[in-house]
Specification:
The complex is a heterodimer of chains A (about 110) and B (about 110).
Chain A: E1 4-7, E2 10-14, E3 19-25, E4 32-38, E5 44-51, E6 56-59, E7 62-67, E8 72-77, E9 86-93, E10 99-101, E11 105-110
Parallel strand pairs in A: 2-11
Antiparallel strand pairs in A: 1-3, 3-8, 4-5, 4-9, 6-7, 7-8, 9-10, 9-11
Chain B: E1 3-7, E2 10-13, E3 19-26, E4 32-38, E5 44-52, E6 55-58, E7 65-70, E8 73-78, E9 87-94, E10 104-105, E11 109-113
Parallel strand pairs in B: 2-11
Antiparallel strand pairs in B: 1-3, 3-8, 4-5, 4-9, 5-6, 7-8, 9-10, 9-11
Classes of the chains: A mainly beta (about 110), B mainly beta (about 110).
Chain lengths: ~110, ~110
């Protein structure tokens, strides 16, 4: 059974810092891995999707990497801003398309 | 472009009352549709998914049911709500074929059962 773990559960950093969020999964037979952002009381916004054949994806100040063999992914946020404050969720899918989510990392970026 | 709508956004219902949450997708055809629940202090749990009209798969035994009466409409229902049904319900869609499997979520419906 696939399990997804995100560390840390919460993170507080000063504005301008570069930071890394971690995601690990137990079954390396994944179809893809997605990173989402969730603001309080809101739905999920897709940030980056990495297919199983890829090693990384970049969008603006965000870079996500995938090491399938070790069951790990990282989300790197460069030059963090207060507007980056949110909960970040990692999810993996098998070939059925169903996503298994981690518990999320709640990020606070202080001005 | 594709959009996904959920309603109502907020709902407060007494125990034992019925429930109907609706989700519609625009701008695409024959999507995969999903209902997730996010309970306080817990992660996102997949409740139901559908690959076509009238085709529903349930992931966990529970007090809820789902239906897909039209290609881009997905409904979550209950005949009698329990306190444990409280939570944040999220509808999502993905393309079936020729896609990366990327999932797109609605804004969610917050249900409080009293």
């Amino acid at each position: 059974k696939q399990e997804v773990t995100q560390i840390p559960a919460a993170l507080s950093v000063p504005e301008g810092e570069n930071l890394v969020l971690n995601c690990s999964f137990t079954d390396s037979a994944i179809y893809n891995l997605q990173w989402f952002r969730q603001d309080p009381g809101k739905g999920l916004t897709s940030l980056l999707l990495i297919q199983s054949s890829q090693r990384e994806q970049t969008s603006g100040r965000l870079n996500a990497s995938l090491d399938k063999s070790s069951g790990r992914s990282t989300l790197y946020i460069a030059a963090s801003q207060p507007g980056d404050s949110a909960t970040y969720l990692c999810a993996v899918s098998g070939n059925t398309g169903k996503l298994i989510f981690g518990q999320g990392t709640t990020l606070q970026v202080k001005p | 472009s594709q959009t996904i709508h959920q309603w109502p956004a907020t709902l407060v219902q007494p125990v034992g009352s019925p429930l109907s949450l609706e989700c519609t997708v625009e701008g695409t055809s024959n999507p995969n549709l999903y209902w997730y629940r996010q309970a306080a202090g817990r992660g996102l749990q997949l409740l139901f998914y559908s690959v076509g009209i009238g085709q529903i798969s349930s992931e966990v035994p529970q007090n809820l049911s789902a239906s897909r009466p039209q290609d881009r409409q997905f409904i979550l229902s209950s005949k009698k709500l329990l306190l444990s049904d409280s939570g944040f319900y999220l509808c999502a869609w993905s393309r079936i074929s020729g896609s990366t499997g990327e999932l797109f979520f609605g804004e969610g419906s917050r249900l409080t059962v009293l």
